[in-house]
Amino acid sequence: MISLTVPKDLIDSGLRSVVNQKSITDSLKVEELDSLGIQQLINKAEQNKVANKEDSINKWATLKYWAADENLSDEEFEAKLDKVGGSIEIIPASYKRSFVLNSSMFTYQAIRNLPLMMFFFLPVFAFILYLLFMKKRYYIEHLIHGLHLHAFAYFIYGLAILLISLFSTAEEWIIFLSFVWVSIYTLFSIKRLYQNNWSKSILKFLILGIFYFTLLIFGFLFELYVSFITI
Questions:
Q1: At what angle do helices 198-229 and 171-194 cross, to 10 degrees?
Q2: What distances in angstroms separate CA 82 from CA 13, 73, 76, 77, 89, one per listed residue?
Q3: Are 55 and 125 members of one domain?
Q4: pLDDT of residue 156
Q5: 2 domain-assigned
Q6: Residue 88 confidence (pLDDT)
Q7: For the chain, how many structural domains are there in total?
Q8: Could you tell me if 65 and 77 are in contact, meaning their C-beta atoms sit under 8 angstroms apart?
Q9: Which end of the chain, N or C, is surrounded by fewer C-beta atoms within 10 Å?
């Protein structure tokens, strides 16, 4: 479902906006903000916005052209990339060139690897539950509980993605409500299954969330790295 709603040119469109990105307000002087020139100032800002956007698109297209040029060595591509301020020293030039050339493929690869990463995180989630409620259940029971919670979360977030594609103006509210729904469901599930009082249930729920989301961030970054080096 995610692969159907996330555009393949997500990276292209995002990087176009950050290549040579400039703040519109930097070009505006505070002393020009008089009551008579506000409309002119707004028009000027809009013109700057369009010009910056076109400049970013042109520069990204140029980078794509350089990356595809077989007569251009990786070192020469690195030098040209430095001129537009898009170079990261710790990443080899060949990887950066491959990323620019296959940026759309990177999006596809990252989305394809995401379910696999979440599958490997299920035992991790179950192990955290086991540590928090060691005296309550066996590990396999925590694993089944974790599978149930993840299945519910996937259903709700999948539904949220579908709603966002239909009602894009309410994107923030849909994301917020889906997150709250999954969180409340998880808390009540923990309370009911492990029979703790509310204070212990809430405390362990917060500990579970902190540890799991911290590990999830590192896992997601690792998944992006694997997708990056395999495109």
A1: 130
A2: 21, 14, 10, 9, 10
A3: no
A4: 93
A5: no
A6: 59
A7: 2
A8: no
A9: N
Residue 208 is predicted with a pLDDT of: 93
The reported pLDDT for the residue numbered 37 is 56
| pTM of the full structure | 0.60
Nearest by Cα to 225 from 85, 93, 109:
109
Looking at the fold, whether 128 and 181 belong to one and the same domain comes out as yes
Q: Are residues 83 and 116 in the same domain?
A: no
Q: Do 38 and 65 lie in a common domain?
A: yes
Domain that holds residue 43: 8-101
Q: Do residues 112 and 129 lie in contact, with contact meaning Cβ atoms separated by under 8 Å?
A: no
In this structure, are 114 and 77 located in the same domain?
Answer: no
Q: Are 150 and 125 in contact (CB under 8 A)?
A: yes
Parts of the chain with a pLDDT under 50: 1-5, 18-36, 50-51, 53-54
